[in-house]
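Hey forum,

I'm writing up a methods section and want to include a predicted complex as supplementary material. The small molecule is pyridoxal-5'-phosphate. I've pasted the protein sequence and the SMILES. Can someone with a working setup run it? I'll credit the forum in the acknowledgements.
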Amino acid sequence: MGHIKGLKCRECAREYPVEPIYVCEFCFGPLEVAYDYKSISKALNRKKIEKRPMNLWRYRELLPIDGEPQAGLNSGFTPLIKADNLARVLGVNELYIKDDTVVHPTLSFKDRVVSIALTKAREFGFDTVACASTGNLAHSVSAHGAMAGFNRFIFIPATLEASKIIASLVYEPNLVAVDGNYDEVNRLCSEIANKYKWAFVNINIRPFYAEGSKTLGFEIIEQLGWKAPDNVVVPCASGSLLTKIWKSFKEFKDIGIIKELNTKVFAAQATGCSPISAAIKLGSDVIRPVKPNTIAKSLAIGNPADGFYASQAVRETGGYAEDVSDQEIVDAIKLLARTEGVFAETAGGVTLASTKKLIETGKIQKDEVTVICITGNGLKTQEALQGHTVSPHYIKPSLASFEEVLEKIKSSGH
Ligand SMILES: Cc1ncc(COP(=O)(O)O)c(C=O)c1O
Ligand SMILES: [Zn+2]
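Reply by user p_vandermeer:
Happy to help. Structure tokens for the complex are below, copy them as they are.
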């Protein structure tokens, strides 16, 4: 059995039973899963975790399920790469990449949240799963939903990158491309969720779904040798991932898995959609919605549901935020590929370019341990690099033609 006590309003602390609900009837605050940490601290320790299979369910006592996992048995436990080449370029001593470009099966951290959401959807008895997505979530619900045998309704803005749309369609969901931006898609989905008895993973299942992001944080601590980093840099769309990474660190401290926690949490956004970083930079609690305009479409949420909580986590930890231009995003994608061999999607460009600025301005210091969260794979957003890469060398199928080019390459110093 699980260790969930129930759901609890983040604002007024009113308690609710474990049901597919997400908003407090009294104050409209968001509901969150509440656990029995006393029993978890008795049930879970480092040794027990280390003996389990290398997937995100190794932390299952801290995840909101009652029975056995129904999805994501191969998801999670992605590499934590010690990024020495990149560290040298950025001028810091110890830098790590949490590489969620390779989460099984759809190559973004969304496979984490969807694993929990679909397990919960099955426990609640739903036969149809759905989501409002900026792209990556669509892939993940399409794929995991197919494996677990759910009907699937996937809602996306029609303007998503063509490659992102195909990477959903291959799983043959009902894909609904809406003539509007993500915030409009999300509003429509809230209406649909009220009318149809579907498990909208990021609406009525959101309290459970969001908990899946904690596994990224648990893994960081385990992979650093059961230590929390000095800094963690997290890309933000709705702000949920950042909020939950911070929650995961606090939980490991609270149940005694780690003794010390002095991590600063940093938010990364694209300047063309930066409601969270703008509030943090202004020192304000108010998240002002914006109309997104950036190549980082996966992060293009203008009215972030968890923006307030993300900015609060950043403030609480003494972190900060940065935001970056489209050009900086492209440059950072290339820098990451060139130095560490990791091909990230635009969200990864946002995270690295923001980290670079945070180092340049002294918010992140040279001798600190920093982890940057690279959360999605670059093969999904190749359009962003069109015209920004080096060109192939075109030759005839002859040795002479090749050697002609080789001479040119040599004389250009490559
Ligand atoms: C690749 C990638 N990274 C980060 C995020 C941010 O997630 P959140 O909405 O939890 O802030 C998203 C959201 O879609 C994403 O697709
Ligand atoms: Zn409330």
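Some notes you might quote in the supplement: Residues 80-106+210-385 form a domain with the Rossmann fold fold (CATH 3.40.50.1100). The pocket of zinc ion (ligand 2) is lined by residues 9, 11-12, 14, 24, 26-27, 29 (CB under 6 Å).
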